[in-house]
UniProtKB/TrEMBL annotation:
PANTHER family in alphabetical order: ABC TRANSPORTER GUANOSINE-BINDING PROTEIN NUPN, TRANSCRIPTIONAL ACTIVATOR PROTEIN MED
InterPro entries cross-referenced by the UniProt entry: BMP_lipoprotein (IPR050957), Peripla_BP_I (IPR028082), PnrA-like (IPR003760)
Key word Membrane present: yes
Signal peptide: 1-20
CDD domains linked to this entry: PBP1_PrnA-like (cd06354)
A GO term from the CC aspect: plasma membrane
Superkingdom, taxonomy of origin: Bacteria
Pfam families referenced in this protein's UniProt entry, alphabetically: Bmp (PF02608)
Subcellular location: Cell membrane
Membrane topology: Lipid-anchor
Domain ABC transporter substrate-binding protein PnrA-like: 52-321
Organism this protein belongs to: Streptomyces acidicola
Protein name: BMP family ABC transporter substrate-binding protein
Lineage summary: Bacteria, Bacillati, Actinomycetota, Actinomycetes, Kitasatosporales
Amino acid sequence: MRRISKLTRVAVGVASLALAATACGGTSSEAGSDGGESGGDAKGLAIAYDIGGKGDQSFNDAAYSGLEKAQKEFGYKTADIEPTEGETDADKVQRLTSLAKQGYNPIVGVGFAYGPAMEEVAKKYPKVSFGIVDSVVEGDNVASLVFAENEASYLAGVAAAKATKTNTVGFVGGVDVPLINKFEAGYKQGVEDTNPKVKVLSQYLTQTAEEGGFSSPDKGKAAAEAQLEKNADVVYQAAGLSGQGVIEAAATAKKWAIGVDSDQYKQEALAKYKDYILTSATKDIGDSVYALAKSVEDGKPLTGTQTFDLKVDGVGLADSNPEFAKIPGLTDAVAKAKEGIVDGSIKVKTE
């Protein structure tokens, strides 16, 4: 977990960046229907997970870390709710509505798939603060928690270009959607800007989330193995739970994997592969969840679009693996790239 000072700084930073509208735990007993009045004065945080659920060692687990921090600091009652296989928007509406009726405030939908459901439910519960990760939803009581994934991915590309010995690196995306396209775009640009001679192999696992692109480690493993067979020696994945298969494949081949969202070098479930996790392009989803909870606790709920980028350390590149610092020129190249992105001299593509 990050220090409180860091989290507070992020909360203040993102509040200053707010714009006009521009990815299973217990619950308390249901309070019943109340015409949208529940939750306004409650002190409780609930998060509803995206595909892959808790234990993905990545996206959803990062959100859970924010819930844990808020629970510890504010004494909140909390709930973290798993998705169901093949669920519809109506299922998400029911889930968010149930949490609002039970008095949770704020309520966070983890992932862009919650967009339509949150737009509907937030209107019915105007006294409840809602947050959605990775999507923009209009509403006076909704905070859209979005990230500059392309910036972190650019840094991952710099690292890959410095680490490769074959001049071939890979990218595996879970689902071919605009959000994951941002990861690919930043990564490719970072590689090219660092070493134009390096070739990037790209593959998406599925066209829709329902096909398992974010929840199928076997698909991730097969995609990575195919890239490794084509001489890639660094593979970056933005694939949720499927990314665990990418990491396994790279480690088995004794090649580098680059993790995503969380610092995957530190994830206990991936410990046997960690020597081959060079770095991770991180998104401080936990900080964003915490920032929303803190704003509600302070009586000034965040609303509108809250952008977490390199300027506020909302995204970044992990250096937990000691081997990271041993690769010639890597640390300096990443630092220089970060400086350029922050000062605006490097414009990172989103597609």
